[in-house]
Amino acid sequence: MDARSYLSQAGLTLDVNQVHEAQQSLWTVLEEAKKRSLPATPSSLDRLYISATPTTGVRSGQPFDLGRALGGRTTQTSFALLTLDALVDAVHQALASSWLRIYQLRSGVLLRLTYRGGLARAQVPLHDETDPVARVARAGRAVLSGAEGWVPLLDETGALVGVIEASASELAPALLAALAIEAVNNLPP
Questions:
Q1: Number of alpha carbons in the 13 Å side-chain half-sphere of residue 99
Q2: Mean pLDDT of 9-36
């Protein structure tokens, strides 16, 4: 989806040129991520697949296995996660964010794919009325509120496929919009 269409569908009133500039900076990150992902080892992938944060967001001692939730560890899924992780790392650093998370919608559940910052629920049921990630997902529109923001991931048809959640003293909405556009192209199958 192009930037202008994304901004319109997500309900964001931003300068499309600023989003394009942010996208260009992320393309550099994507190129580097592709080069770095080639020598991925099983132990380096464990960091992406196994999380100490269980479904509820409270540490229970039971790690969450993202690989199982995604239907197994495949080369394509591993590459997608490494790419998304590089994007999140770059945006997290650029924003100096408290936290930044990408969720993918799968079978009525928002599945956390990658994140930086504090504890995060590994799965958020779409019907959860109390969780802002689920509320934004149901609405399909961005919400920027002070230091926190939620932007939808929309596919080419405008259908919701996930959500980005962020907290930073200065959110940089154009960068979050660029991340949303690029993340959709790099989601696991």
A1: 15
A2: 92
